[in-house]
């Protein structure tokens, strides 16, 4: 029997499944719930328990972790007679690791407090590879005491774990992260097309660029996607489109100008409108190729 907190995990997608599995490897008892039967089977095969509903998953949990696509999904699983707040025990800690609007996180924390449930917003960065390797960056918002209590668990999921401020702060930092990532991918995509059209050995060029000031985690993680045109989703264009909406709206609210970010947000939206929303966000390369009179086979 483990003496570690009992964990309920809601949402077992591209990121959620490997993250939940890393908690199991670290010795945490994990009970999962999601809508996809194959994801529940995967959890069970890796040592987790399967619940038939949110209520069943959270009823006995010390910690509840949610990892779903956007604010509407967080609200759907949190509120209402079948939701987390209706069935979690008083004193439980709810850690929402989804990427949602800061205001949604603030509202959830207030609603949960009325039920005696503690809340952290703790979105992540690092993509599917970071989730699998347990090296995610985790940016948290909420009370310091709750963050301190959650830290040992979060250390099983990530490498850089920082409390950024009160409720909603983690989501604000995640929005900034997504702005930087999108602009970086777009710049890399433009460089790839420029290099190829110039007749340069692309692989060699990206290697040397990666070793200089132009190097970045984005370039290191996405270099193979660019060179092989492998756009299988690690983080989908659809989700980055959602995140760019979050950051542009939040920036407008506080009066921050995003001149380059606004352009890249439109490029992401354009790619999605052309039917590429299900591809990895490195597929921004496809948009640059189209503008340059080239097409890919993927």
TrEMBL record:
The keyword Coiled coil does not apply. Residues 168-286 form the 3-hydroxyisobutyrate dehydrogenase-like NAD-binding domain. Pfam families: NAD_binding_11, NAD_binding_2. Residues 6-164 form the 6-phosphogluconate dehydrogenase NADP-binding domain. Transmembrane segments: none annotated. Keywords: NAD, Oxidoreductase. GO terms for biological process: glyoxylate metabolic process. The active site is at 174. One of its GO terms (molecular function) is NAD binding. Belongs to the HIBADH-related family. PANTHER family: 3-HYDROXYISOBUTYRATE DEHYDROGENASE-LIKE 1, MITOCHONDRIAL-RELATED. NCBIfam families: tartro_sem_red. This is 2-hydroxy-3-oxopropionate reductase. It comes from Streptomyces glebosus. The lineage of its organism: Bacteria, Bacillati, Actinomycetota, Actinomycetes, Kitasatosporales.
């Amino acid at each position: 029997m483990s003496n570690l907190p009992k964990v309920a995990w809601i949402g077992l997608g591209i990121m959620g499944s490997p993250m939940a599995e890393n908690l199991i490897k670290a010795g945490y008892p994990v009970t999962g719930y999601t809508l996809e039967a194959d994801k529940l089977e995967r959890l069970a095969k890796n040592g987790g328990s399967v619940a038939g509903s949110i209520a069943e998953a959270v009823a006995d949990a010390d910690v509840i972790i949610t990892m779903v696509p956007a604010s509407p999904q967080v609200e759907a699983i949190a509120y209402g007679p079948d939701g987390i707040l209706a069935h979690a025990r008083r004193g439980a800690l709810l850690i929402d690791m989804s990427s949602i609007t800061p205001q949604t996180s603030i509202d959830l924390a207030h609603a949960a407090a009325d039920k005696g449930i503690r809340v952290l917003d703790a979105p992540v960065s690092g993509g599917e590879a970071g989730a699998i390797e347990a090296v995610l960056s985790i940016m948290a918002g909420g009370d310091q005491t709750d963050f301190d209590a959650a830290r040992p668990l979060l250390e099983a999921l990530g490498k850089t774990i920082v409390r950024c401020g009160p409720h909603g702060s983690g989501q604000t930092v995640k929005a900034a992260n997504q702005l930087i990532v999108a602009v970086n991918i777009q710049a890399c995509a433009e460089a790839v097309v420029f290099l190829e059209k110039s007749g340069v050995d692309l692989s060699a060029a990206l290697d040397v660029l990666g070793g200089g000031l132009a190097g970045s985690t984005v370039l290191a993680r996405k270099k193979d996607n660019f060179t092989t045109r492998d756009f299988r989703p690690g983080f989908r264009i659809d989700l980055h489109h959602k995140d760019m909406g979050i950051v542009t709206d939040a920036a407008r609210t506080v009066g921050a100008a995003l001149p380059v970010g606004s352009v890249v947000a439109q490029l992401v939206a354009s790619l999605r409108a052309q039917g590429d929303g299900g591809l990895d966000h490195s597929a921004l390369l496809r948009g640059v190729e189209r503008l340059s009179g080239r097409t890919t086979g993927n």
